[in-house]
Input
Amino acid sequence: MTGTPSPGPAHLILIGLPGAGKSTHGRRAAKQLDRPFIDLDKRIATTHGRSVANIFAEDGEAAFRALEREATASLALEPPSIVAPGGGWMLSPENVALVKPSSTIVWLMVSPAAAVSRMGVRIALRPLLRSGNPVRTLEGLLEKRRQRYAEADAIVDTETLSWQGVVDALVALAPPI
Output
């Protein structure tokens, strides 16, 4: 490919640790903005007929990340949406390049302890958190991801705002259509 990539649709991309509220707050913001909500992991699972946990277990993380890039590339065909990718999405510069410069990336910041508390029993659905101490696992993930997360266009602290405050912040940050 030569030349400058076309800007593509102006999505609001929500990043952060598992349990940060990407799906919960993303759905609420999408409803308020009257835009589609896309859970990228669910889209991958539906497209490939297997859960993300099964893809990780059977094919490994590298295979999942390749599917994640494909799903990210498909966003160019979508109307402006609120998108919630998995927690590791931001680690790939290719993913970011596929949605920039038109999309806005927002880090939903949460402490590992609060994230684990929010997930409750659903933590068993998270492949990276199935074994060991989930708080320590998230602390390690945050340490590895913090620098990339900090490259987001904006940061919303989900522990200091009410759920409505988070949604209001996301609505204000959404790129215009």
Notes: Residues 1-6 have pLDDT under 50 and may be disordered.
